[in-house]
Amino acid sequence: MLKCIIVEDEKNAQSILLHYIEKTNFIDCIGVYESGLDILQEIVQTIDFMFLDMELPELNGLAFLKTLANPPKVIITTAYPDFAIEAFEQAAIDYMVKPFSYVRFLTAVNRIRATKPTIDDTEYILIYADKITHKIKRNDVLYIKSELDYVSIVTTEESILTLGSLSNWLEKIDASSFIQIHRSYIINTDHLKKIKPNAVLIETVEIPIGSTYKSIIKKMYS
């Protein structure tokens, strides 16, 4: 499942995109925003791509894209074809001119899908610790915890302590099921059992939710 957000200030355009997304079984929309200024960086880290309108209030689409340190894949939506070259220079995957049909929409999202690694490519990760390289299944990881200059990779079978930072591991693990919910924790939402006001339960382990990350959980599961 590919996770996306919609950044679009026109209600009609929002409705059309949401309708098309509902018809497409491999896309999940986790949020709709009328301005890029409303989006937390933490939200951007959890998605595979965004639908981005060019004509936004306060900050246009491409200007907003330039503010992101690690932008996700982007499908530009606009009523004007004039910005296509600049959009592709900003690494947009596709450029849809309104109004667009479901067939045109599907063509664009299939381009996103084609750039997503297959399950076979991402089934395992390698962890180097104590002069040993561990090969583990990605989905066996329950959570990752920061330990000063190290991180603990906690799996269904063991806990492995290795050098690194949470930000590096969030990028390395590169899967939509992994999200950061605290300055010291990344969780695998495939193992999420309960959500409490200030914590989540990953299998039998309770992990705190940082105050700045509560909105992520709320948007994803409300």
CATH class descriptor of the largest domain: Alpha Beta
Rg for CA atoms: 19 Å
Quantity of strands, as a count: 15
Helix content: 25-40%
User: What series of H and E elements makes up the topology?
Assistant: EHEHEHEHEHHEEEEEHEEEEEH
- Name the structural class: alpha/beta
How many distinct folded domains? 2
Provide the β-strand percentage band: 35-45%
Unreliable stretches (pLDDT < 50, length at least 5) are none
Biggest sheet strand line-up:
2-1-3-4-5
Sheet having the most strands: 5 strands, parallel
- For the termini, the CA-CA separation is 18 Å
Mean pLDDT, nearest integer?
84
Separate helix tally: 8
The CATH topology assignment of the largest domain is: Rossmann fold
Principal-axis shape equals elongated
CATH superfamily of the largest domain: Response regulator
CATH architecture of the largest domain: 3-Layer(aba) Sandwich
Can you put this structure into words, describing what you see?
With 222 residues, the protein is α/β, with parallel strands linked by helices. It has two domains: 2-115, Response regulator (Rossmann fold, 3-Layer(aba) Sandwich), CATH 3.40.50.2300; 121-221, LytTr DNA-binding domain (OB fold (Dihydrolipoamide Acetyltransferase, E2P), Beta Barrel). The chain is 29% helix and 36% strand. It contains eight helices and 15 strands. The protein has helices at 11-22, 41-46, 61-66, 84-89, 102-115, 119-122, 166-173, 214-221; strands at residues 2-7, 27-33, 49-53, 73-78, 94-97, 124-129, 132-137, 141-147, 150-155, 159-163, 178-182, 185-188, 192-195, 199-202, 205-208. The protein is elongated. The chain starts with a strand and ends with a helix. The relative contact order is 0.11. The mean pLDDT is 84.
